[in-house]
């Protein structure tokens, strides 16, 4: 009986919608003269984006009034029948989220039981787009998948079936390892424009908690002191970004501030914050898989798969975000070893997320930024093809964050195609990173083109992982390249003064980059510019033309 009733309701609704589609809903609802194409959502969830000048709260009330008027029209058509299931009909349309990112990007998240409502809603003058908010599947590296190519890419982006890739997938993927001892040495070295001292190195255990020894610095124009990380297991990728030319017998050199005071928001699948490599500098922030995040901020939790990769906490994710975070700021694996990390979990451990989860994460970062005086950076080692429904809205939201003053560093993508076709990598407002190998070749699966800003190590990079507080894994891709640049940005920001604009940070990264060191770049639009962390220990590293 109930099914029959609803069938009658929707039949009458269709007649009403058809009859009134070209009329205004009421005198207060001005018609949108621009036709809006609407793609039907599988989940019944939609994001309604509105104009920048529109007031979000007023629009929400307008939508509620619109739906009440629609119900009255249906009631007039059905007579007494509507009173029998009025509450049920009201549940057919719900506003469950709102987004205001810097007063620039504005939208509401709604659930609509029948997409025919949307035809009427698109007539509101405030509305600029209506986007389906379905799950997007990302491919994440899982510990139990021993033979997969551990690259991070959108599932519907097809990777080339080259012999190179097949060989990599079979031979190069490594499972996480727990508790292996590390022999790492750290020492202080002053800027050698004057003089420096030699010190005996200090070894560390598996937690990598070495205690460096200070040395006297020379009396010169630049009093920055430097640390050295040496030893047989010093990550090759760290050594490479602190040298103008490839020489893996050298230590990793970085300034002693090491990003202290800088906060990096890792927009990803979560972080294993208890990992020893983070030394307590990582914390949970926003999570779309949890009802509560960061001590009480309400988040949506209705999307995504409930199944998780095996971790102690669902907010740890499947390992990808932990790996990225380790490259940014791990004590052993990281570039900026004293920077703070905040997990912004927009994907679950199975690599599923929605546009709304990404919007929610970016909005939460914006809210945190309003109360912060210290430097912040966003790392996004993820992306969607530009053709994905909702990619345009996501791009606009991220650009709003940059306009607000937050630098965004993004992975170029691993589809061996033009990075301009990936969001957010294709945005001119973000700083986009391509991937290279230990042999100074461009990773053959890295995206390329004019939207790439810089190149960084991304192939066979070892970093922290999930499964234990000492686990690590070796992964490849532009997801691993981007955090090298984010970490370098964290090293630079403490020396750049207050209120640094994103464009100024981007220019500093450009100016420091080493030119013409990378081979096998597939086109003439990709800049042959390799990340350099700015260390000035030796005269060779003060110039680009090493």
UniProtKB/TrEMBL annotation:
- Could you tell me the Gene Ontology terms of the biological process aspect for this record? proteolysis
Is Hydrolase one of the keywords UniProt gives this record? yes
Q: Where is this region: Disordered?
A: 200-219, 297-319, 518-546
What the entry lists under PROSITE patterns is as follows:
SUBTILASE, SUBTILASE_ASP, SUBTILASE_HIS, SUBTILASE_SER
Q: Name one GO cellular component term.
A: extracellular space
The residue ranges of the Peptidase S8/S53 domain are 259-494
Under the heading InterPro entries, the entry gives:
PCSK9_ProteinaseK-like, Peptidase_S8/S53_dom, Peptidase_S8/S53_dom_sf, Peptidase_S8_Asp-AS, Peptidase_S8_His-AS, Peptidase_S8_Ser-AS, Peptidase_S8_subtilisin-like, Peptidase_S8_subtilisin-rel
Q: Where is the active site?
A: 268, 320, 479
Q: Where is the composition biased (Polar residues)?
A: 200-218, 297-314
* CDD domains reported for this sequence: Peptidases_S8_PCSK9_ProteinaseK_like
Signal peptide limits: 1-19
Keywords from the named record: Hydrolase, Protease, Serine protease, Signal
Q: Name one GO molecular function term.
A: serine-type endopeptidase activity
What does the sequence similarity comment in the record state about its family?
Belongs to the peptidase S8 family.
Q: What is this protein called?
A: Peptidase S8/S53 domain-containing protein
């Amino acid at each position: 009986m109930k099914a029959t009733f609803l069938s009658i309701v929707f039949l009458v609704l269709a007649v009403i919608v058809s009859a009134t589609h070209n009329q205004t809903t009421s005198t207060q609802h001005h018609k949108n003269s621009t036709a809006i194409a609407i793609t039907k959502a599988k989940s019944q969830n939609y994001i309604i984006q509105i104009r920048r000048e529109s007031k979000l709260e007023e629009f929400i009330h307008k939508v509620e009034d619109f739906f009440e008027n629609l119900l009255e029209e249906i009631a007039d058509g059905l007579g007494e029948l509507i009173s029998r299931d009025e509450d049920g009909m009201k549940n057919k349309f719900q506003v469950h989220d709102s987004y205001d990112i810097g007063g620039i990007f504005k939208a509401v998240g709604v659930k609509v039981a029948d997409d025919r409502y949307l035809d009427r809603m698109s007539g509101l003058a405030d509305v600029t787009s209506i986007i389906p908010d379905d799950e997007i599947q990302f491919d994440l590296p899982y510990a139990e998948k021993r033979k997969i190519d551990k690259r991070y890419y959108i599932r519907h982006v097809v990777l080339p079936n080259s012999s190179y890739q097949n060989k990599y997938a079979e031979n190069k993927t490594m499972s996480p390892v727990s508790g292996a001892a590390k022999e790492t040495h750290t020492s202080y070295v002053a800027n050698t424009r004057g003089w420096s001292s030699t010190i005996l190195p200090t070894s560390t255990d598996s937690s990598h908690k070495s205690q460096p020894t200070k040395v006297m610095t020379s009396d010169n124009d630049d009093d920055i002191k430097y640390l050295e990380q040496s030893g047989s297991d010093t990550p090759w990728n760290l050594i490479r970004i602190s040298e103008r030319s490839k020489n893996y017998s050298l230590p990793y050199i970085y300034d002693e501030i090491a990003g202290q005071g800088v906060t990096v928001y890792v927009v990803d699948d979560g972080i294993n914050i208890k990992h020893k490599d983070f030394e307590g500098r990582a914390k949970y922030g926003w999570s779309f898989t949890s009802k509560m995040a960061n001590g009480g901020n309400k988040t949506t939790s209705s999307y995504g798969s409930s199944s998780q990769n095996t971790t102690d906490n669902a907010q740890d994710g499947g390992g990808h975000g932990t790996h990225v975070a380790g490259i940014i700021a791990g004590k052993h694996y990281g570039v900026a070893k004293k920077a703070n990390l905040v997990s912004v979990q927009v994907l679950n451990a199975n690599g599923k997320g929605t546009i709304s989860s990404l919007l929610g994460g970016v909005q939460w970062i914006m809210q945190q930024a309003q109360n912060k005086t210290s430097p912040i950076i966003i790392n996004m080692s993820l992306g969607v093809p530009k053709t994905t429904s909702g990619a345009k809205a996501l791009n606009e939201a991220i650009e709003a964050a940059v306009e607000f003053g937050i630098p965004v560093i993004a992975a170029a993508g691993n589809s061996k195609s033009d990075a301009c076709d990936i969001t957010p990598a294709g945005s001119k407002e973000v700083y986009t990173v391509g991937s290279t190998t230990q042999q100074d070749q461009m990773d053959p699966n890295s995206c390329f083109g004019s939207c790439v800003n810089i190149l960084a190590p991304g192939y066979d990079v070892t970093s922290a992982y999930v499964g234990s507080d000492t686990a690590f894994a070796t992964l490849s891709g532009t997801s691993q390249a981007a955090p090298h640049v984010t970490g370098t940005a964290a090293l630079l920001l403490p020396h750049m003064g207050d209120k640094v604009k994103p464009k100024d940070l981007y220019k500093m990264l450009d100016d420091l980059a080493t030119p013409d060191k990378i081979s096998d770049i597939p086109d003439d639009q990709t800049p042959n510019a390799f990340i350099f962390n700015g260390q000035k220990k030796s005269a060779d590293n003060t110039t680009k033309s090493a």
